[in-house]
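Request: Not sure, any thoughts?
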Amino acid sequence: MTTSTLMRVFVTATVLTLAACGGGGGGDSQTTGTISVAITDTPADQGIAEANIQFSGLAVQAAGGELHSFTFDPPRNINLAALQGGLSEELLRDAPLPPGRYTWIRLDVNAEENVTDSYVRFDSGEQYPLFIPSAEISGLKLVATFDLPVNGAADFIIDLSLI
């Protein structure tokens, strides 16, 4: 691959699991649900030794207009190359969220052009910053409607694939 080709590595995301599982019962007076988000990687045969993605936060948009944001301080670094063969890493676990309908999840990724907070390192030792054109403005947005029931859980596994 040429340097100009490598300078722009794009990430695509596929929501593998969209599960809003109802729970509850009895006398539990809890009126929230929870959301968990994990990251995995589709195997890539591109000679990639490391694909470090830096996540600064996550946001979930309610259908009624309220945005629920979760900030990672410090930012979370996840090496996608280590998450192949069915492995995943939790980004957010059992975070409280009001029940209701949600329209999208946004991953806030630090991947500006010519900055190495997120990067790809090849087997050859060459390393290039990861650039996602919309990262600074809108993050990596996954548009999929889901319902979170009272006392329920929404568990997601997001498959990121370097192309």
About this structure: The longest strand covers residues 48-62. Confidence is low (pLDDT under 50) at residues 1-29. Residues 3-6 form the longest helix (4 residues).
